[in-house]
Amino acid sequence: MVLAEENDLANKQELMNWSKGCFYRSDGRKIDEDLGAKVWDFCMEIDAEAQRMHCCLGKQDKTIHTVEDFYVDRLPEFLEKFSMSDRDDATAIFNSFFNYQRLNFGWDIAKVPFESYIKYKDIDGGDAFMPKGARSLISAIASRFRSKERIKVGAEVVTVNWEDGGVKIRCSSGDTYRAKCAVVTVSLGFLKKHHQTFFDPPLSHEKYLAIDRIAFGVVNKIFLEYDPPFWSKDTPLDSVRLAWDNKELVITDPKSQWFKRIFCIDAVRFNSNCLCVWISCHEGLHVETVPDEEISETCTMVLRQFLGDPTIPYPCKVIRSTWGTNKYTLGSYSCMGLRSNANHFNVLAEPIEDSNGQPRVLFAGEATHAAYNGTMHGARESGVREATRLLRQFGMLPSPREQVIALSETQ
């Protein structure tokens, strides 16, 4: 039995797909596009440098403890690449890059250890865009099941009991299901809140520490619908990236200044009437509790201010994701926290074995992948990993040792 994970991992892939977009200042001025592209390229170079430094951590400045430390350390050298007249705009774009990285990690980068780059790996092939959303991928996989009547949806699992010989799953409805093994793919946020009552017997202390110390942040999207839109094919609106100066970016009251964590406002592909607002961290969580009217007024204020157009109308409809308060997710995706290390992801991935050494409760999901946590491909690979483990356990695939022996016998 697989306990399905609802996670907004598609966010991270979509974040990396911008091909167009401009930076705007709070006085309504659009930064020169060539300058914007040049500054952003340098930001990406700094990010790539951080990823390369995992090979020589012993040589790094001992004052660099977090991802934010690294970027702040590089800022003076970064600004020297630009003329004095361009440095104010370059700094504002660099501040925008900070909000971008908060989205990328789903967490405050002042609380993400620089060590997080140790485990970072690129994946070949680039990113893919799914026009019908991540649900279409799940539907395609589910359509291949021969016994569709065995797929139970809308069944809220409350406990996973494991013992020698199998597992028993109990639902809030009172229904119980028995199986030889269970693959648990609930979010890390759910585990943080419920692991003590969700598993019987309880999890090991090592697995508890992994759940407790890996960070699990919030990234949300706000969709603004217009009828009619205030832009057109002749004057398209691609990506409005907000470039705050240093003083503007300071947040003294998160509840009233949550909009300062907005990285950009994008046109929505395949929906010409909508804009998408990207926001993260504590401010992104707070947005989930804000009335639609406040979101409408605040986002309209931001658009009018940065685009320099006081006539921009209010949206006719506001829709927002609620990953942080959804009781089945309680966050978006994981990253390394200040109290965690790369091995905690591996510990979380380890199956629970019975007294005979047989795996009974297996774990999958993005937070169980040491290299690709926080991504859809990481979540998928973790599922393939656990499916392979089960196939080998039931003798439907040779073990790695058997494969090596078979290979040596053929040589």
Automatic annotation (TrEMBL):
Transmembrane spans: none
InterPro entries associated with the record: Amino_oxidase, FAD/NAD-bd_sf, Flavin_monoamine_oxidase
One function term, GO molecular function aspect: polyamine oxidase activity
SUPFAM superfamilies for the chain: FAD-linked reductases, C-terminal domain, FAD/NAD(P)-binding domain
Amine oxidase domain location: 45-391
Superkingdom: Eukaryota
Short name of any one Pfam family annotated for the protein: Amino_oxidase
PANTHER family in UniProt: FLAVIN MONOAMINE OXIDASE, SPERMINE OXIDASE
Name listed for the protein in its UniProt record: Peroxisomal N(1)-acetyl-spermine/spermidine oxidase-like isoform X2
Protein encoded by which gene: LOC106169724
